[in-house]
């Protein structure tokens, strides 16, 4: 699969059949009246945080679980993160650049400030990745289920750029995490409906990859 142009989740795995079904179902659901109504509310903005990646060279594609040139694969449970990028009218934003970054399963970011003091990140976890939304606005990543670290509930940072829109930085959270109730960044979103829009439910994704999870995170640009 292309490194950038499509939801390139399973670049080193034969997962295309399950992924096509999943994305097709997502596109169909996103055309319904409920999805169009939800699209009228823009995804809330969140802090970029102190660990935005400083290096996008090398392996920075949509598969964060396997790093080119590394024998070890990332630890943690695999997560297939997918969704659509749309405007307030619900129309797709084809070609939007979607970036994600997150800590590894040990809670360490791929960032020089988080690797000081003897903290060592997993070399088999890419830590950041990007792809471009396809003609339907669909994007996808193969990563790991986010983990908590001191002071933060599990989350994945997301940054989206698209022509005609201001850059959006937000975060994707996991439904049911007990730390959600006391996470200051998440709860800075005062509107309950807006807060709920950045919390994704994770489901088993055996049809895509054995033992994996799937999460749906749609993005609405103002």
Total domains, how many? Answer: 1
Describe the main β-sheet briefly: 5 strands, mixed
CATH classification, class level: Mainly Beta
User: What shape does the CA trace take?
Assistant: globular
Rg over CA atoms:
16 Å
Number of helices, counting only DSSP H or I runs of 4 residues or more: 4
Alpha carbon gap, first and last residue: 30 Å
Number of strands: 10
The class by helix and strand makeup works out as alpha/beta
Strand residue percentage = 15-25%
Order of helices and strands: HHEEEEEEHHEEEE
Uncertain segments: 1-31
Summarize the structure in words.
- This protein is an alpha/beta fold and 222 residues long.
- It has a single domain (16-221), classed as Sandwich (Protocatechuate 3,4-Dioxygenase, subunit A), CATH 2.60.130.10.
- It has four helices and ten strands.
- It has helices at residues 16-29, 33-38, 184-187, 192-196, and strands at residues 78-87, 97-101, 128-132, 138-144, 155-161, 168-174, 199-200, 202-204, 213-216, 219-221.
- Strands 1, 4, 8, 9 and 10 form a five-stranded mixed sheet that branches. Strands 3-2-5-6-7 form a five-stranded mixed sheet, with no helix packed on it.
- A hairpin with a 6-residue loop joins strand 5 (155-161) and strand 6.
- The chain is globular and about 45 Å long.
- Residues 1-31 have low confidence and may be disordered.
């Amino acid at each position: 699969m292309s490194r950038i142009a499509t939801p390139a989740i399973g670049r080193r795995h034969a997962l295309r059949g399950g992924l096509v079904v999943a994305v097709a179902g997502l596109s169909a659901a996103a055309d319904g009246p409920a999805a169009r109504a939800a699209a009228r509310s823009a995804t809330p903005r969140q802090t970029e945080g102190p660990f935005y990646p400083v290096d996008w060279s090398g392996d920075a594609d949509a598969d964060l679980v396997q790093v080119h040139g590394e024998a070890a694969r990332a630890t943690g449970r695999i997560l297939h993160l997918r969704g659509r990028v749309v405007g307030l009218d619900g129309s797709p934003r084809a070609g939007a650049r979607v970036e994600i970054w997150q800590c590894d399963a040990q809670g360490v970011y791929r960032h020089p400030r988080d690797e000081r003091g003897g903290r060592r990140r997993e070399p088999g976890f890419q830590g950041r990745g990007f792809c471009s939304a396809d003609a339907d606005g669909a994007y996808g990543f193969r990563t790991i289920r986010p983990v908590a670290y001191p002071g933060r509930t599990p989350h994945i940072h997301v940054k989206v750029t698209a022509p005609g829109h201001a850059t959006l930085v937000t975060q994707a959270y996991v439904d049911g995490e007990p730390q959600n109730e006391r996470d200051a960044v998440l709860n800075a979103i005062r509107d309950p409906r807006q807060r709920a829009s950045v919390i994704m439910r994770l489901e088993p994704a055996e049809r895509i990859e054995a033992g994996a999870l799937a999460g749906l995170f749609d993005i609405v640009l103002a």
